[in-house]
Amino acid sequence: MKKAVLFGVVLLLASQQAFAVYVLILRNGERVVAKDKYVVKGPNAVFATKIGVWTSIPLSQIDVEATDRVNNQGLGDAQLLEWVDAKKPIPTPTPTPAVATLGRLKNDGMFKPEGAAARPTPTPGVMFREKRYKDPQVDEAFQQGLESYHLYLYRTSVGTEPGYLFIEIQVNGQPETLKALQAVAATYELLVQKAPDRAPERVELQMLNESGKEAGVFRLSAADAAELVGGKVTPENFYIQHVIF
Residue 19 falls within a domain, yes or no? Predict the structure, then answer.
C-alpha cells in the first residue's frame, strides 16, 4: 500500500474581478453553477442559475459534502493544492448537459488571427475521451488549478497520446477564454517546476462557448506555458500565436 504523498503549492488566482458563484456537485458527477447557495424547500434544492433563472433539483441528487468542500476553498485567496496517492481513481467531473453533449463545432470568430496564425493547423483527435489520464494526481492538480481561477465547467481525459492531458472548458466571452489559458498555463508551469518527471508531455485544450461553438483548440508544451506565465507575451497575443482550431 502506497503512503499518501502530500505536495503543497500555492496557486496564484486569476483577476480579482471574477464573479462570485456557487457550484453544486451532483452525485452523478455533474456540476451546476448557481448565483448563490441553494435554499431547501421540502425535498428540493431551489436556486438561481448564473443567468438568473430560478430552478430546482431534488436535494437527494446533490453531493452535499463535495459541494461544501468546493465552495469553502476560499477562492478569493491563494489556496494550498494537496496531492494524495488515492486508493482509487479520483472522479473526473462531468459538466452540465449543455457541455457534455457538445460535439466539435466551428470557431465563433471571437478572435481573428492574422498572418501565419490564421492558417489552419490540423488537430486530429483533439477531443474528449472516455479514458482517464494516466496520473490521477496530475489530473486533480489541473482541476484544482481551474477552480482556483473560478472555472468550473470542464472535463478532462487522456489526450491524443498517452502522455498528453486533454482538458475541455466552457468559457463565457473573451475575458474568460484568456483566463482559462492563464489557469492551464500556470498549473502546467507549476508542475514542471515542482514535479518535472510527472508533468504532461503536452496539454491539449479545447474551449467551447456557452452556445457550444469552439472558442479555441490548443496543444501546449511546457515551454509554451512558461512563456505565458513568465509574461513574455500577453494572453491576447499568446492566443493568436498558439490557437490551432
Answer: no
Q: Which of 15, 209, 8 is nearest to 102 (CA)?
A: 209
Q: For the chain, what is the largest distance between any 2 Cα atoms, rounded to a whole number of angstroms?
A: 59
Count CA within 13 A, CB hemisphere, residue 235. 15
**Distances in whole angstroms, Cα of residue 218 to Cα of each of 22, 103, 194:** 29, 16, 23
Range of the domain at 226: 88-242
Q: Kindly indicate the confidence band of residue 99, based on its pLDDT and cuts at 50, 70 and 90.
A: very low
Q: Which residue's entry shows cell 496543444? A: 219
Task: Give the CA count within 13 Å in the CB-facing half-sphere of 129.
Answer: 17
* pTM, to two decimals: 0.59
How many distinct structural domains can be found in the chain? 1
HSE-up of residue 238 (Cα within 13 Å, Cβ side): 25
Phi, psi for residue 79 in degrees, rounded to 5 = -125, 160
Measured CA distances, 192 to 148, 185, 200 (Å): 18, 10, 9
pLDDT, tens digit (0-9, with 9 covering 90-100), for 116-155? 443 444 456 788 998 999 999 999 899 888 988 888 888 8
Query: Residue 25: pLDDT band by 50, 70, 90 thresholds?
Result: confident
